[in-house]
């Protein structure tokens, strides 16, 4: 086989194939079972939250600084601030949204690129494009 020949994709097995329905069920169980108040939440003051509301959605938002400030939990913080108005308007319990965001963030594995900081950065960039 030549050195540059592509490797064939691995066969699909039950180990690496997870259906959409299975993912939804896992997320639903996590939302029902977890209580946000018992989880170690990032420490974000009201003042910082107000500043974050103004800065989120800006192209030059410093996600690295935020990640450092919130102890490596940027997705929960960005999601909480970004969705706060919609959650209030749609009468959704804020703790359920935080549980959902925490469940998503907990599924990220330590990785130099596709990690929760990248997810928070993508969310911030989405906010930027929605405001154009």
TrEMBL record:
GO biological process: signal transduction
Domain PDEase per the UniProt entry, residue ranges: 22-132
Keyword Zinc carried by entry: no
Keywords: Hydrolase, Metal-binding
Keyword Isomerase: no
GO molecular function: 3',5'-cyclic-nucleotide phosphodiesterase activity; metal ion binding
Protein name as annotated: PDEase domain-containing protein
Native source species: Alexandrium catenella (Red tide dinoflagellate)
Taxon lineage: Eukaryota, Sar, Alveolata, Dinophyceae, Gonyaulacales
């Amino acid at each position: 086989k030549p050195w540059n020949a592509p490797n064939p994709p691995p066969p699909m097995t039950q180990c690496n194939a997870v259906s959409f329905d299975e993912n939804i069920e896992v997320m639903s169980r996590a939302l029902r079972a977890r209580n946000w108040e018992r989880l170690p939440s990032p420490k974000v003051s009201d003042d910082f939250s107000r500043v974050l509301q103004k800065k989120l959605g800006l192209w030059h938002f410093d996600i690295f600084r935020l990640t450092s400030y919130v102890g490596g939990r940027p997705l929960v913080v960005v999601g909480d601030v970004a969705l706060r108005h919609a959650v209030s308007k749609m009468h959704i319990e804020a703790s359920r949204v935080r549980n959902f965001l925490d469940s998503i963030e907990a599924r990220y594995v330590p990785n130099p690129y596709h990690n929760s900081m990248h997810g928070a950065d993508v969310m911030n960039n989405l906010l930027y494009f929605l405001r154009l």
